[in-house]
What we know:
The protein folds into three domains: 4-83, PUA domain (Archaeosine Trna-guanine Transglycosylase, Chain: A, domain 4, Roll), CATH 2.30.130.10; 91-194, Transcription Regulator spoIIAA (2-Layer Sandwich); 218-405, Rossmann fold. The chain has eleven helices and 20 strands. It has helices at 4-7, 27-30, 91-108, 145-149, 151-162, 222-231, 246-253, 266-278, 293-299, 321-337, 356-370, and strands at 15-21, 35-37, 41-46, 55-59, 65-71, 77-83, 115-120, 129-134, 137-142, 166-169, 188-189, 195-200, 203-208, 236-240, 258-262, 286-289, 304-309, 339-349, 374-380, 399-405. The protein has a seven-stranded mixed β-sheet with strand order 16-15-14-17-18-20-19, sandwiched between helices. Strands 2-6-5-4-1-3 form a six-stranded mixed β-sheet. A five-stranded mixed β-sheet has the order 7-8-9-10-11. Strand 5 and strand 6 form a beta hairpin. The longest helix is centred in the N-terminal third of the chain and has 18 residues, at 91-108.
Amino acid sequence: MKDPQETGGASPRAIVYRVWLRPERERSLLKHHPWVYSGAIERIEALPESAPGGLGEVYGADGRWLATAMIQPDATLAARVLRFERGPIDEEWFRALFTRAVALRELVIPPETDAYRLVHAEGDGLPGLIVDRYGEVLVVQRLTAGIERLTPLWLPALVALARPRGIIARGESFRAPAGGQALPAPLWGEAPAPRTLIRERGIRFAADLATGQKTGFFLDQRENRASVGALARGLRVLNAFAYTNAFGVYAALGGATDVVAVETSGSANELARENWALNDLAPQRLHLVREPVQQVLRADRDRYGLIVLDPPAFAKEHGQVERAARAYKDVNLHALRRLAPGGLLATFSCSQHVGVDLFQKILFGAALDARVPVQWLARWGAGPDHPVSLDHPQGEYLKGFLLRSLASG
Length: 409
């Protein structure tokens, strides 16, 4: 019997597309950038039993083989490359990439930490696949039709290496039923409880795997939370867009006098209280404000020694960048006005379409309009369990700056 990788067919490892690029449009692939946009493609040949997300071979205009990719024929981002060298996309190939990913996490994850990103899409050579570990539970996001189609190949390899008790899939489209805490059926193993207790450097948190943002917790901010905790001693802290108030917990454990956490979500405020209690922090040191951040920053006349701004992505698409820039400027301008003399602002953008240079310019404009001179002390990003391939700089989505107010009063 012929290998379905060669003949086509229903197998997820079968080649079901052939893609030819336009002349001189292979340069990015030759530099190992994993994305091919539709504008670079001359034509796509659909083989028998082709389906969106199926595997395809990509060729240059001269007929030279360039890569094996997941093909989405009608999408602007039409191909995501898996291999730049010839070879099958099979369980053994996935096992090799997962082994490399696990080795990195064993190197960089701090002690007493059982929640972290295990696989970071293009950063680990697996476009469209996110795997987060929460203790004995894995939560995966299959962000493309291709990676979902390949599940029968990568799931056994993941189970063998990570040895979880259960694996569930979540995505942007998943929402628990109204008033419920239901989780999707597990991809493998046992269904976990909707709320899972995790540790981060020995600090305890509750992660909401059913309805929480992302996969249940902001794992990418781990290193930045530790940095905030190290700076907070003796300071009054405002944690804006607080979500579960993890930044606030670190600040309080670091010696902050008190923490004001601003978050409109009632369920997030419940988690904030729970996380505070889990770490034996005095309840009178936490002040929860369930109002919009922009409204609080405009109305509040208190001054803070440390403010954390970690808003949701204001630009989820490229066409939203201009509007997002205005929103980032507004919220940072008013935060700078709330800083005490010498106060610190830890400010972030998780909008992939707002690059670090643009974000820096936005902060410059906010400081200028706020009439608050500032020092730039540090630039922060996601932790090392969120690696970025140098071939794919678009993988750097989280940008953070630590600023210090030089205003005299």
